[in-house]
Amino acid sequence: MFSIAATFFSVEDGLINQVFFDKLGWLSVPTNFLANADIAKVFQTFFLSVWKNCGWSAIIYLAAITGIDQSLYEAAKVDGAGRIKRIIYITIPGIMPTFIVLLVLGAANILNTGFDQYYVFTNAVTLPVLDNLDTYIYRTGIQNLNFSYATAVGMSRSIVSVLLLTVINRVAYHVNGAKII
């Protein structure tokens, strides 16, 4: 993923800087997206993380939509329901169990920010901005040789994740009517 991001966003020969700086003239100075502390968190969270997870989520939701009985759509269309009404009253309730399952699975990993992504993209400029719990545990345990403290922080993170998972499972029970886990 880093090599793809470097191909698109590097200062010298990145596609984005070449197009917007050289060809279109929109940027007066090339922007170093990979070593800019001001945009690093937004870039990592909203661009790269969403980009990584968007494909998998699309596959899951498309599979859920194809599992909805087509006769429901045909009956609604005959009754005069437009596209928006069919989405609101057929598609959304049809994919709600899938949404709940993905919510519960996502809750288990809510404190897992993706160590590999943040570790690879961190440099001296972006370290204060991209430092998170995973990289803190790594730095404390491996680099500073404080294994017991890093283990305690990691275990605390796991306990909080289990508590969050339990709360979201109870919410899913009340919304969906059945326990997921």
UniProtKB/TrEMBL annotation:
Protein's UniProt keywords contain Cell membrane: yes
Keyword Lipid biosynthesis part of the UniProt annotation: no
TM region positions: 87-111, 147-168
GO cellular component, as recorded: plasma membrane
Keywords: Cell membrane, Membrane, Transmembrane, Transmembrane helix, Transport
Gene Ontology biological process terms from the UniProt entry: transmembrane transport
Membrane topology note: Multi-pass membrane protein
Family assignment from sequence similarity: Belongs to the binding-protein-dependent transport system permease family.
Provenance organism: Eisenbergiella massiliensis
Name under which the protein is recorded: Sugar ABC transporter permease
